[in-house]
Amino acid sequence: MTFYKNMADVYHFIFPSQGKIDFLSKQFQENSHLLDVGCSDGRVSEGLAKRGHNVIGIDYSEDMIAVAKRISDKLSNMTVAQMDMRDVFEAYGSRKFNGIFCIGNTLVHLTNLEEIKSLLFDFNTMLDENGKLVLQIIHYDAVIANKIRTLPLIDNEHVRFERNYAFDTPLVRFSTKLLIKSNGNVYEADTALLGLKMKELDLILNEVGFKDVQWYGDFTGKPLDESSLQLILVANK
């Protein structure tokens, strides 16, 4: 995917990992076996591995996995693999994980609710009896209801990243413009994402067997509200 190919080497400048690592560490018991679905450049998995967890990360992007593999090769308790998330049960269905997390708005790269339900059913099956699921997507209820066309600009010494939305329910058109300041290269991309609503997601979670769902508005643990731009949930099997 060209979108992620151009981002791979600078992804950590666009989306720092520390806040995610801190939040996830609070959700899982020590020395857990974790599955990171949509691991991007692997830095969240790396942070959790360095805190004692055993982590498997997967991502569809070959370029992201190439970066993640350079990290995982230095760690005995982290491995990564390139694959479509819809194939995760085929690859790892014989294992039981203490936790599965799918963050970075990964889930809504699936194209319809049936695919979402199938994947979440697989997640539930792959978790042990006390397992936890953590998901994070954009809070599309807020984006669509408030007709938010532009997400906050990411601008630092390394990158400038612009993000814009156009609406074509149930899909959302996500357009980006990335400037890499070290070389002046500019990349533009356009991606169709599923505008998944909270009620739709909550219904599917219940249907596939998850319970005790907690909703958050960011990785500091702030409760979800109508102004939140992120939707994060923690659910028990």
Features:
237 residues, alpha/beta, Rossmann fold, N-terminal domain of TfIIb, 2 domains, seven-stranded mixed sheet, four-stranded antiparallel sheet, 9 helices
Structure characterization notes:
Keywords: Methyltransferase, Transferase. InterPro entries: Methyltransf_25, SAM-dependent_MTases_sf. The chain is α/β, with parallel strands linked by helices and about 240 residues long. It has two domains: about 180 residues, Vaccinia Virus protein VP39 (Rossmann fold, 3-Layer(aba) Sandwich); about 50 residues, N-terminal domain of TfIIb, CATH 2.20.25. It contains nine helices and eleven strands. The strands form two sheets. The chain has a seven-stranded mixed β-sheet, with helices on both faces. A hairpin with a 2-residue loop joins strand 7 and strand 8. Helix 7 crosses helix 9. The longest helix has 14 residues. The two termini are about 35 Å apart.
